[in-house]
Amino acid sequence: MQVIRDLYKFKKPEKGVALTIGNFDGVHLGHQALLKKVVALSQEKSLMSAALTFEPHPIRVLRPEKAPKRICAPEHKIELISKAGLELIFIIGFSYEFSQIPAEEFVSFILGRSIGIKELVVGYDYSFGKNREGNIDFLREIGERSGFNVHVIDPVNVNGITVSSSKIREAVSSGDMRLSTALLGHYYQIRGVVVHGKKRGGSLLGFPTANLNLYYEELFPKPGVYVAQVVVDSICYGGVLNIGYNPTFNGENLSAETHILDYDGGDIYGKSIKLNLIERLRDEKKFGSVEELINSIKNDIFIARDVLKDEKGLGRSCIEG
After folding, report:
1. How many CB atoms are closer than 10 A to CB 105?
2. Which stretches in the chain have pLDDT values below 50?
3. What is the CA radius of gyration of the chain?
4. 134, 127 in Cβ contact below 8 A?
5. What phi, psi does 61 have (nearest 5°)?
6. Could you tell me where in the chain the CATH 2.40.30.30 domains are found?
7. How far apart are CA 60 and CA 55, in angstroms?
8. Segment 62-89, tens digit of pLDDT
9. What is the pLDDT of residues 98-145, one digit of tens each?
10. Which CATH fold topology does 2-156 show?
11. Which end of the chain is more exposed for a tag (fewer CB within 10 A), N or C?
């Protein structure tokens, strides 16, 4: 998939483009329905398939105090959209000035003249432009005048829940990883580079951990102990992840520490790893002694191995997720 960050350098294809627009935070099942429709239209009508998204999230620019926590990092979002089979992704730098562009100008100059859309796919609640004046009725009307068709995708429901980024944030924040996986259509994932921690895991407890720095703008689950898949150097391992403050050692900073099961890849410091969160095992707890903590970790590992054994598609999920 080709990533386009500068529309001025993009040569509009003669055959036209089937396009969908959105923030696509998490690339959940609702987003995937949009992407699937774009791919189908592009194949049916011999068009290029594309998605258009924004960085940073518009709310982060317009109302930073209400900005939502990010479900997935920008590079992860690109990967997930690419896996849907699209040929292009346009990433528009969002700013206050950009937000003031009238809806009709956005459609005419960006979607029409710069990209060359022939088919536009949007969600049932989509709107855009200054004062959100570009609603679905507006798109259909301007589409008739400008020569492109508008396709509106109905909401996707899972077990009676309408899939949305806000519902996924609620599920992750409460530690309900099974629900977040069901709504996303893939595991919720944490990514990062392994850094040096307090070095208690290996020397004191006998369970070395891979530690990640956490960033305030990203979404993290409720503190506790989780079963995870761990991808290191494209190899999938099981893992037990602790997200929290290390209360037994009176920690003050939020951390993510993962004991990787059966890891034999050598020095892990400085390596990029991916954590697919599968299930929450328990709350983080302040133990009365190091021995109690060690016994609890042993029990967590025992349970985690059973969870991982029963998890279907382990290898495939690690590679693709």
Report:
1. 12
2. 201-204, 249, 314-316, 320-321
3. 22
4. yes
5. -90, -45
6. 187-320
7. 9
8. 888 888 899 998 899 999 999 999 999 9
9. 888 888 899 999 999 999 999 999 999 888 766 677 789 999 999 999
10. Rossmann fold (3.40.50)
11. N
Q: Does domain 187-320 have CATH number 2.30.110.10?
A: no
Q: How many residues does the chain have?
A: 321
Q: Which structure tokens are listed for 66?
A: 């209400």
Q: Is 182 helix (H, G, I), strand (E, B) or coil?
A: helix
CA 185 from chain centre, in angstroms, equals 11
Tokens at residue 150, please? 């508008």
Query: 308 phi and psi, to 5 degrees?
Result: -65, -35
Where in the chain is CATH 3.40.50.620? 2-156
Determine the Cα–Cα distance for residues 150 and 58; give it in Å rounded to an integer: 23
Put residue 170 in one of left, alpha, beta given phi > 0 → left and psi -120 to 50 → alpha: alpha
Distance in angstroms (rounded) separating the CA atoms of residues 49 and 118? 10
Rounded distance between C-alpha atoms, residue 18 and residue 112, angstroms:
12
CB distance 170 to 71 below 8 Å: no
**Contact (Cβ atoms closer than 8 angstroms) between residue 201 and residue 249:** no
The full DSSP string for 11-59 is ---TT-EEEEE---TT--HHHHHHHHHHHHHHHHHT-EEEEEEEES-HH
User: CB of 59 within 8 A of CB of 68?
Assistant: yes
Rounded to whole angstroms, what are the CA distances from 120 to 17, 150, 251, 270?
A: 9, 5, 51, 42
Longest dimension (CA), the chain: 73
Cα–Cα distance for residue pair 110/21, rounded to 1 Å: 12
CA angle 129, 57, 223 (to 5 degrees): 145
